[in-house]
Amino acid sequence: MSSYQFLASDHPFEKLENPFLEHLSIREALERNMDIPDFMLENPDMDPEEKIFLLCDTEEHLEDLELHPEEISFPEVSARLTENPYVVELQWRYSKERAETLLAYIRKHLASAKNLEIFSLWLDEEGEPHRMEVTLDCLNLRHLSFLDLSDGYQGPRSLHVKNSHPDYKES
Hints:
By secondary structure, the chain is an alpha+beta fold. It has 2 domains: 3-17 and 64-162, no CATH class; 21-56, no CATH class. The chain has helices spanning 26-31, 38-41, 59-62, 75-81, 96-109; strands at residues 3-9, 21-25, 51-56, 66-67, 86-91, 115-122, 130-135, 157-162. It has a 6-stranded mixed beta sheet, with no helix packed on it.
């Protein structure tokens, strides 16, 4: 079983990069005196400028919050659960600090969106998630605690965050 967490909204999502990750090409890795396997150096099909290596200072930082709207792993799952047209997968391991970053991201996103949904489920589950609702004004870290799977999975959940005062303008 694999867990799947994602956000859905009526407004496009901005990308959020993991600040601890660095992508390197073969050339850049060699400039840093890193060891590169011979089969990579000798392969004429390998582009020395293509960023194929991932560099991170600690294993813990590998699991920092990332949101890449262009990289949705399971679009059929989100399409089954939400009518919102924009989806972004949560790539992270829950921690209080990361949840605070996510909370700030949600607040910023809802400055120009009507609503946002947050889903947490196992990929092979067929049933509907337990749905919760909160207004943006009341949203806090406690509402995001269902995303923390460290104490075990509690079943499929979703949180619908409504913005009663968005700055967006409908056309």
